Amino acid sequence: MKVLRRTMAVAHKEVLHIIRDARSVYMALGLPVVMLLLFGYGISQDVDHIAMAVADEDHTPTSRRLSEALVAGGDFVRQGDLASPDDAETALRSGRVKAVLVVPLGFERDLARGVPAAAQLLVDGSDGTTATVALGDAAGILQATSSARAVKASLSSGPRVRVRFNPTMRSTYNMVSGVIVLILAMVASLLTALTVAREWERGTMEQLFATPVRRTEIIAGKLIPYAGLGLVQTLLVITLGSYLFEVPIRGSLVTLFGCSMLFLLAMLGSGLIASVIAKSQLVAVQFALMVSYMPVAMISGFMFPIANMPKWLQAVSMVVPGRYYLTTLRGVLLKGNGLDVLAGEAMALGGFAAAFLAMAVWRFRRRLA
Amino acid sequence: MSEDACVRVKALTKRFGAFVAVSDVSFEVKKGEIFGYLGANGAGKSTTIRILCGLLSVSSGEAMVAGIDVVHKPNAVRHAIGYMSQKFSLYLDLTVAENLEFFGGAYDLFGKSFRARRDAVAHDLALEKLSGELTGSLPGGLQQRLALACALLHKPQVVFLDEPTAGVDPEARRTFWRVIRHLADSGTTIFVTTHYMDEAEYCDRVGLMVGGKLAALDTPAGLKRTFVPGRVYEVQGASVAEVKKAATDLALLDIEPFGNVLHVRVAKDGPDAEKLRDELTRHGVHVTGVIDAEVTLEDVFLQVVGGATKPSQAPQEAQAS
To answer: Which sequence spans correspond to the domains of chain A?
Structure first.
């Protein structure tokens, strides 16, 4: 009872600190929104509105339909016509267009005969992402166009690709889950790193140690408000994600928030470790960013697929809690997975939370020396 | 050992690596006593206090506070003590009321019993009208009083005050000491460090720390008798060398420069002020005035430090900060 009350006294004080400090409120609630908007609108990995020129030598309904189909898909924007395919090189070099569609004379005739039709899409490869996406998009459209004409052409005989869970390959879907991971990792570890280090710096920690409040109570009391704040952030980002970017929530919210809580605790724990060791706000913040933000951004699978990493880096990513949380989020949001599938991830998150918090308490020496 | 000792320290030693911060210190503080701990910075005052509050481990020796062995059970002592650390340590972004409420909670005070204590303490320290103020916006003296209020909420048996009046204006210091005296009169034991010599006069007994050792311990009057015996005069308008040369048959004990005058001390049966003036004038020393001077703890401090270390360094440090 006393333990609970003392913990709540610490928690209450911590809430007051948060409210009084405009920076922490901004960081906790403003930053997630800014990041989501930035990632959702600004730094979209989707490639559309690719400037395209058309060099149509065939001048037939089929050739026209082909170029229209590319534009209709929304991925390409017709930026003008070229008189001859020979101009394609110049157009791409100037950067005026990123792609040139070349339809040779006799395209319609070849298609009608069942001879492989040789329309060409030249793509500016100097912009890697655009090129890859443009090619992918165009291949799909060209395939669809030719099969729509019910031609038994060899064009349509390739393997058909269907993307499950995110059929239009919207990158915002991945972004929203990534941003949640990033935000929670950053804010949770940063805020907690600051809160303990500040008390060391100002000497209030020594005062606190002279009271009957125990170290576990100090840590628990500091965790409660920030864990609550983290849940509010999760809710905020998910709500905004589904409103603004139509990110689906296919799985259970209980699973989602349960796992979010575990991840939060792990991140709060790592922030506590940072500030317990550092004892100065500046060092604690740098340490927290290094152990939370960097790994999540780089090796959690958010920006770069883990499968593409060298083996040793994959091994390192095993101890990044963000990795498991990202899998969980994507699983719950996009695939509708439940704990039956995500039990491993949930256990990993729980393990990290327990380990980090235990380490923070252990390092948080009661005695000053 | 006396029965009513509230703090009892025996052969206490604390080392930080090779540095000995507190060296073989022993003393007792009675219940309701104001015990002053006087010394230069780095003399081991704060270290002793932190040990007694259970915040620091001990290298060797014994320490009992309110009947609790703080060497072996440092956590058990917390309900019995109030502590005001040297660094001002309240939450500046919290209001006066919120600081009181938090420390009340930290000391297991809730509900009715908390409110009763809060009102009593706020009344004693005249903080009632400030409850809505942000602590950071208060002047130093009020912040200090609030810190004391927070340390007194749980009615501790012993209050440890580490340089409580550092950086506080003289009037606020006086108010502060009035509260301290009142507390001691109602049975609370006060253990206070300071390097204001005038404040040490308020203490029932004063321990002098020099280089980690307890160099002297007595009442202010007793210290003066022991270390600064005889009579002290303030001599105006002469130099140390002149007086020294002239005063060959004056039972002279000591000459200390004191501001722009000299404190000249002679044996108990030495000359009175008039005689001293005549004697000095007779020897050709031009003095503008000789008056009776009071022996201060500063004189004591200079004597003790002079005996324990090189005469020049420690007193200056003590005055500087």
So the answer is: 2-43+170-363, 50-157
CATH of the domain at B309: 3.30.70.980
Residue A151 has pLDDT above 50, yes or no: no
CB B55 to CB A209 under 8 A?
yes
Question: Where on the phi/psi map is residue B111: left (φ > 0), alpha (ψ -120 to 50), or beta?
Answer: left
- Which residues in chain A have their CB less than 8 angstroms from residue B93's CB? 16-17, 20-21
A263-267, B37-41, B215-219: range with lowest mean pLDDT: B37-41
Residues of the domain holding B306: 225-320
CATH code of the domain in which B181 resides = 3.40.50.300
Query: Would the CB atoms of B87 and A369 count as touching at under 8 Å?
Result: no
Residues B108, A204: C-beta atoms closer than 8 Å? no
Q: pLDDT tens for residues B241-287?
A: 888 777 777 777 888 888 888 888 888 777 888 888 888 888 888 88
B34 plus B176 within the same structural domain = yes
pTM of this structure: 0.76
In this predicted structure, the answer to whether residue B96 has a pLDDT above a threshold of 80 is yes
Alpha-carbon distance B141 to B139, whole Å? 6
**In Å, how far are A270, A332, B134, B150 from B139, measured between CA atoms?**
38, 55, 11, 17
> At B85, phi and psi to the nearest 5?
-80, 165
Q: Name which of A201, A207, A214, A218 to mutate to probe chain B: the one with the most chain B Cβ atoms within 10 A of its Cβ.
A: A207
Between CA B111 and CA B119, with CA B117 as vertex, the angle to 5 degrees is 100
Count how many domains chain B has: 2
User: Which residues from chain A sit within 8 angstroms of residue B106, using beta carbons?
Assistant: 6, 9-10, 208, 211-213
The residue out of B219, B240, B273 marking a domain boundary is B219
Domain A50-157: CATH superfamily, name plus number: abc type-2 transporter like domain (3.40.1710.10)
By the CB < 8 Å criterion, does A365 face chain B? Answer: no
**Residues of chain A positioned with their CB less than 8 A from the CB of B16:** 369
> Which of B162, B185, B219 is the endpoint of a domain?
B219
Q: Would you say residue B234 has pLDDT above 90? A: no
Query: How do residues A76-88 score in pLDDT, each as one tens digit?
Result: 888 888 888 888 8
**A352-361 pLDDT, tens per residue?**
999 999 998 8
A201 in contact with B at a CB cutoff of 8 Å? no
